Amino acid sequence: MLNIEALSLLRGGNTLLDQVEVTIHTGRRVAIVGANGSGKTSLFKLILGELQADEGELTLPGQCRIAHMQQEVDNIDRTAIEHVIDGHKELRKLEAALAQAEAADDHGKMAQIHGQLDAIDGYNVNVSAEQLLHGLSFSQHDMHRPVSDFSGGWRIRLNLAQALMCPSDLLLLDEPTNHLDLDATLWLERWLKQYQGTLLFISHDRDFIDSVASHVLHFENKKLNYYTGSYSDFEKQRAERLAQQQANFEKQQQRISEIEDFVRRFRAKATKAKQAQSRLKELERMEKIAAAHIDSPFHFEFPCSEKMSDPLLNLKKISVGYGDKTILSDVTLSIHPGTRVGLLGPNGAGKSTLIKAFVNDLPPLAGERVCGEHLAIGYFAQHQLEALDPKASPATHIQRLSPKESEQSIRNFLGGFGFHGDEAFGDITTFSGGEKARLALAIIAWQKPNLLLLDEPTNHLDLEMRHALTMALQSFEGAVIVVSHDRHLLKNTVEEFLLVVDGKVDVFDGDLPAYEKWLLDYQKQSDQSTEKTVSNSDNESSDDKKERKRLAAENRKRISPLRKQLEKDEKSIDRLHQVLEEIEGLLADPDIYSDSQKDRLKQVLQQQAESKTELEEVELSWCDVSEQIETLQAEELE
């Protein structure tokens, strides 16, 4: 299916691949792994013809149909389902041809095209698209919303569905689980295992790779190493290869030392000169073996606050939601030091809402949230990545928290998160999502929390960083509550699960395989309920349907500016929190209370008061806008 011969690739003056060779046969499911920047995405671009090799060649069989997952959305005015169906290029061509034939009243051509549509199962495409969207956690209502309504992560899901919709012989997926929850990840696994073509996918999710991959292609030291089996098999085989490589390296180094010693001792002696020259030629011909390096660039831990309350946090019969809409009700939980909980539940059931209740981003609508005297929360969520100051360096982000800390200690600390040398002191404008996520985790670790609240912390992290995060969480002495689609992280860091479903939070008495079975049963029940709803809507008259669609369109127009205002308020809230944190850092410095700093202290206190007032106003605006959106969405559903 795919053949690479003596291929070399340079990018930006750096050699990514050097004289590599590999053959991937039809029907293989190949996971592509390797360090960030090693050339994984560049390989996809080579296959798609967007890049050209500097040497060698990459060949595919003739008429090979390639499907790949776009990273951007071109037409945001299309509905979700139409965007997904656009992935079926052959169908769209036939539909355009049919429209021309109908306009020309060419019945012969129309009959021919209808036959072609039947041959590609074109009349069931809508059903297939709905199944894909449903599997990726889109509701029936979502399918007819414009793409512009969805956030970036959900647009990536739409692009994934579009790639799966496209009939293909070769499917290329770049980080397909990055924006998926656990439910959608499990569904995607099942779909890919039934895919009949050749699959190449880049992933940092080891359990996903274990479940899907038949082979692993590893980018390492500008070479491609091809392994048979899952990720776990790859790890064992690579460890054995590296051990053998290291043994050969040490043996070769010993031989080199012997040759050099011989040459040094006998080169000047006439009787031994010929032998010395012979040894030198042996040294020149010798193919050098590299030392085996398997050290991760990441080594860090989460220091725990020295003071600890027990319990750290109590939720007493709380209800939480947005505006008048309650998402979770009558939740009673107690978090103690050492608590290690993973949150499970269908998409949209309220897992992130519960995390926000813990951190008090969503104050209870009813009930009581009681904090321990020494509660110190470390909170990670994806929106915090956007709240980082792009003009500040990683070191500056830490320095703002501890103005008196030495530059060297901050440099040493950031090194554990992979920020070395100038990278620790340059601005983060060009940082990738993975680099921002590492910085956000570093900021949390620096503050020594005793309760970690992690909402999808592994998004954008590579395998090495995920491993380092798992190790750090295992040794953390405080409490951990985590939402994640990374099952390896869950299996190795939490001791119990809570199930969030139908507005309730209960203990889940089972492991992750048991949850997968539970989820399949739950989805079957949901599908049956959806079918009943669709059946009822089919009984609507034509005029009623038109009126419902008109009202829905009007609602979307009214919601659109509200969403923009909501995003604006969220950015302002993040900015003001950052400002207040900086002010607290200034006020923590004893020097500011000296007589010579009176004017400066007055300015800082005034700025603090103004920022708090502005924050209250923006938060009120956010709540009001959220409530308006919820009301309009509820009206649309009615």
From TrEMBL:
<feature type="coiled-coil region">
    <location>
        <begin position="566"/>
        <end position="621"/>
    </location>
</feature>
<dbReference type="InterPro" id="IPR050611">
    <property type="entry name" value="ABCF"/>
</dbReference>
<dbReference type="InterPro" id="IPR017871">
    <property type="entry name" value="ABC_transporter-like_CS"/>
</dbReference>
<feature type="compositionally biased region" description="Basic and acidic residues">
    <location>
        <begin position="542"/>
        <end position="554"/>
    </location>
</feature>
<dbReference type="InterPro" id="IPR037118">
    <property type="entry name" value="Val-tRNA_synth_C_sf"/>
</dbReference>
<dbReference type="Pfam" id="PF12848">
    <property type="entry name" value="ABC_tran_Xtn"/>
</dbReference>
<dbReference type="Pfam" id="PF16326">
    <property type="entry name" value="ABC_tran_CTD"/>
</dbReference>
<keyword id="KW-0175">Coiled coil</keyword>
<keyword id="KW-0547">Nucleotide-binding</keyword>
<dbReference type="InterPro" id="IPR003439">
    <property type="entry name" value="ABC_transporter-like_ATP-bd"/>
</dbReference>
<feature type="domain" description="ABC transporter">
    <location>
        <begin position="2"/>
        <end position="246"/>
    </location>
</feature>
<dbReference type="GO" id="GO:0005524">
    <property type="term" value="F:ATP binding"/>
</dbReference>
<dbReference type="InterPro" id="IPR032524">
    <property type="entry name" value="ABC_tran_C"/>
</dbReference>
<feature type="domain" description="ABC transporter">
    <location>
        <begin position="313"/>
        <end position="527"/>
    </location>
</feature>
<dbReference type="InterPro" id="IPR027417">
    <property type="entry name" value="P-loop_NTPase"/>
</dbReference>
<keyword id="KW-0677">Repeat</keyword>
<keyword id="KW-0067">ATP-binding</keyword>
<protein>
    <submittedName>
        <fullName>ATP-binding cassette domain-containing protein</fullName>
    </submittedName>
</protein>
<dbReference type="Pfam" id="PF00005">
    <property type="entry name" value="ABC_tran"/>
</dbReference>
<feature type="region of interest" description="Disordered">
    <location>
        <begin position="528"/>
        <end position="554"/>
    </location>
</feature>
<dbReference type="InterPro" id="IPR032781">
    <property type="entry name" value="ABC_tran_Xtn"/>
</dbReference>
<dbReference type="InterPro" id="IPR003593">
    <property type="entry name" value="AAA+_ATPase"/>
</dbReference>
